[in-house]
Write a structure and sequence with these properties.
single chain; 22 strands; globular; Metal_Hydrolase
Length: about 525
């Protein structure tokens, strides 16, 4: 089954694929099969749907995270310290220990962890661990010493050094993270290759055949090109550079063409206007309910934002702008209002996350063809924290998916991996239930903002492809489209939400080639 270009359901029981990896025809019951195909694959009645498209992820970060210390499963500071001690013992030859995934909210800590607490697990080996949302990092004393951090070090614009007893406490928020990261040993090209291959394996195993890559660096781009040159690039990457300068250095005077059989294109630029809600870096119109006097951090002045957009848009680059807090979303909407008459040739403005929006600003998302690029799993992960940060009276425009559609925005879904799992079936289920994996809360959190099962599916396929200018190449199955599809173990339109979350991807095909097959499947059938 697939959605067509209009979002209508189409059922079929066979696919004819050309030698170019594109769909020739979808076969229905009674349609004549080719007489002498070059090859034939019998999937034995299993369910086939288009490959899933993640509208917002971080490919290299996923790979590096998977190869480093992962604290995402820890439920207390003590658990995290134990995991860090084990990792340190197993990697005693490393110059630095790195990893991430920690979340002090999940730990019930009520504050950020400290360098001293990290020292207790690492000793004098420099250690840097990035928070789950990627907007804060935790350093030990050795790391701060290596980076030259002292009691006199000032917080940079757009960042904050958390202080303890008048000295840097070990946590660096948003732009302040660079103070530590400049001291980190740089990964080698071999390290980068390994991280990419790991990330690609994870994504293909979960049924993600195409993904936006948000914040592509020059080193990331060179890794993707190496993989393409070697024939190892299996998935499709819609690349958004980490700034205007990177885009111009990679692509020159405009977006690159699609490369390697429509597998790679740099078409856009990623900008940040604020931080994250969990680290209280999201820029709000009013102070945080649980931190009076703190309204978050703006990253750019209005003039800086307008200038950056103009520099890229004049060469035809699309913009994907991170905005989490209501004040940040207002700033981006104001900029789009001001520039849309100047840059109106298919710009496809994207606002990434759009998590907390003033209800008064929601109708503005329907103007200028704005794409609301949102992540369902953020809502299920963040709901308790969002209530604490904002207070119940300020949640009317929070994670407002249905309102985005009602106001005329194009809603696209992703996961923001590795902040969250890249499993698209978890996001799909959350999209129409507003519940977590345990079915909580009963009836869904602010269920009036749930979308339908089909709308959530469309946001993870057709519209996610559209958001990256890929809608004529992938995102659904039809003649002329790339034959990107996955074989799964259940009907996603009939499965209960919990069963949908448990969907197993048996095979993944990209461009008519099988690029993943679950171990138990190997040996069955023959191509």
């Amino acid at each position: 089954m697939t959605l067509d270009a209009k979002g209508e359901l189409v059922r079929f029981n066979g696919i004819v694929i050309g030698t170019d990896g594109k769909v020739v025809k979808l076969l229905k019951r009674g349609d004549k099969r080719p007489d002498r195909p070059d090859w034939k694959e019998d999937l034995k009645g299993r369910t086939v749907i288009p490959g899933m498209v993640d509208a917002h992820g971080h490919v290299m970060s996923l790979g590096f995270r998977a190869l480093a210390l992962d604290l995402s499963a820890t439920r207390s500071l003590g658990e995290a310290q134990d995991a860090i001690r084990r990792y340190a013992a197993e990697n005693s030859t490393r110059r630095w220990l790195t990893g991430g995934g920690w979340n002090q909210e999940v730990w019930g800590l009520g504050r950020f962890p400290t360098a001293a607490e990290l020292d207790a697990a690492t000793g004098d080996v420099p250690t840097w661990l990035v928070r789950a949302d990627g907007h804060a990092g935790w350093a030990n004393s050795a790391a701060m010493k290596a980076a030259g951090i002292t009691a006199t070090t000032k917080s940079p614009a757009g960042g904050r050094i958390e202080m303890v007893a008048g000295k840097p406490g070990g946590v660096f928020v948003d732009a302040a993270m660079a103070l530590i990261e400049k001291a980190l040993p740089q990964p080698t090209p071999r390290d980068r290759n390994a991280a990419f291959i790991k990330a690609q394996d994870i994504l293909l195993s979960m049924g993600v055949t195409a993904s936006a890559d948000m914040g592509t660096t020059i080193d990331d781009w060179m890794t993707y090109r190496r993989m393409g040159d070697l024939g190892i690039l299996r998935m499709r990457i819609m690349s958004y550079s980490d700034g205007v300068d990177t885009a111009l250095q990679v692509a020159g005077s405009g977006p690159t063409p699609w490369l390697y059989g429509d597998k790679l294109r740099m078409g856009g630029i990623k900008l940040y206007t604020d931080g994250a809600l969990g680290s209280r870096g999201a820029w709000l119109k009013a102070p945080y309910a649980d931190a009076p006097g703190n309204s978050g951090l703006p990253f750019l002045t209005d003039a800086q934002l307008l200038n950056s957009i103009s520099r890229g848009a004049m060469d035809g680059f699309q913009f994907a702008i991170h905005a989490i807090g209501d004040r940040a979303n207002q700033q981006v909407l104001d900029a789009i209002d001001e520039l849309s008459d100047t840059y109106k040739d298919g710009q496809r403005w994207r606002i990434e996350h759009a998590q907390i929006v003033d209800p008064a600003d929601l109708p503005r998302f329907g103007k200028h063809g704005i794409i609301a690029s949102m992540q369902p799993v953020h809502q299920s992960s963040d709901r308790a924290m969002a209530e604490a940060r904002l207070g119940a009276e300020r949640l009317a425009g929070a994670y407002a998916w249905k309102s985005m559609l009602a106001n005329g925005a194009r809603l696209v879904f992703g996961s923001d991996y590795p902040v969250e799992s890249p499993n698209p079936f978890e996001g799909w289920a959350t999209g129409f239930t507003r519940q977590d994996a345990q079915g909580q809360p009963f009836g869904g959190w602010r269920p009036e903002e749930a979308v339908s099962r089909e709308q959530a599916w469309r946001a993870f396929t057709i519209d996610a492809a559209y958001a990256g200018f890929g809608e004529k190449k992938f995102g659904h199955l039809a003649p002329g489209m790339r034959a990107d599809f996955i074989v799964i173990d259940r009907d996603p339109l009939l499965a209960s939400p919990s069963d949908l979350r448990s969907t197993t991807v048996l095979e993944t095909w990209v461009g008519g080639e099988r690029v993943f097959q679950r171990a138990a499947q190997r040996g069955e059938g023959g191509r």
